[in-house]
């Protein structure tokens, strides 16, 4: 691990869509994941996991879910090896008192690490750090406009948003329902912009509750709201002259309120990726810098690390 990373939050994403393709062209079924797992390349990466983790990967009905599970486990092991300087077999993954994945040292090893993983669509995202006294949360969400627009048209915008009122505060629901863009948009573009705003709120709340170690059923969810939520622009919409590859805009001036009081000391960031992804990151310390997300390559970034042990 580079020295400059030791006091910063490193962030990775892995796109599993082009990885571990099925030679039988199958996507789902009772034994689909087991059949997919027989492929030579899949076997190479599955063999890097302990038996119990391999078993969990091949239980999925949909191969896309098995691929996300495999990618998630690989990134967790990478984070432990990178930050704790242990060999790959020593990168044991367990769960803490909140059932949050964590590193379980095999001896009195004094190195610690904190990490959190999320996956949706075809992406796996991980945020990690070597500091002991920090909590991290990450959430990635793929915005499926083609799926959501017909539902919103059928139910109406407010009714559709109200379906999720158990997750949001009354103020957040009102902010989402009443939001209007600054520029003039067509009816279709307006609806898509509103859906994007909804998922910005969702992604931030998921990242925050994952940081705390609690689930979206936490009893205080409706007492907490995020204010000044801005939706980061997708890469393809950035002005000419700005970097416009896969990475879109990043926003961070987000306020957290709970039971009417401002919550301070937590850092939140929302990153746009490609045209349809948002990635939220939460850290329990404001003064801990976030490194830019790095898109990992399995053969270049993961496999050598596993074979070499630690770096």
Overview of the structural elements:
This protein has helices at about 30-35, 40-45, 50-55, 65-85, 145-155, 155-160, 170-180, 185-210, 300-310, and strands at about 10-15, 95, 100-105, 115-120, 125-130, 135-140, 225, 245-250, 255-260, 260-265, 265-275, 275-285, 290-295. It has a four-stranded mixed sheet with strand order 4-5-1-13, with helices on one face. A hairpin with a 2-residue loop joins strand 4 and strand 5. The termini are close together. With about 300 residues, the chain is of the alpha+beta class.
- Shape summary: globular
Residue-averaged pLDDT, rounded? 90
Radius of gyration: 20 Å
Strand order of the largest sheet: 4-5-1-13
The share of residues in extended strands comes to 15-25%
The low-confidence runs, each spanning 5 or more residues with pLDDT under 50, are none
Number of helices: 9
Largest sheet: 4 strands, mixed
State the separation between the terminal residues, measured CA to CA: 6 Å
Secondary structure tally: strands: 13
* Quaternary structure state of the chains depicted: single chain
The level of helicity is: 25-40%
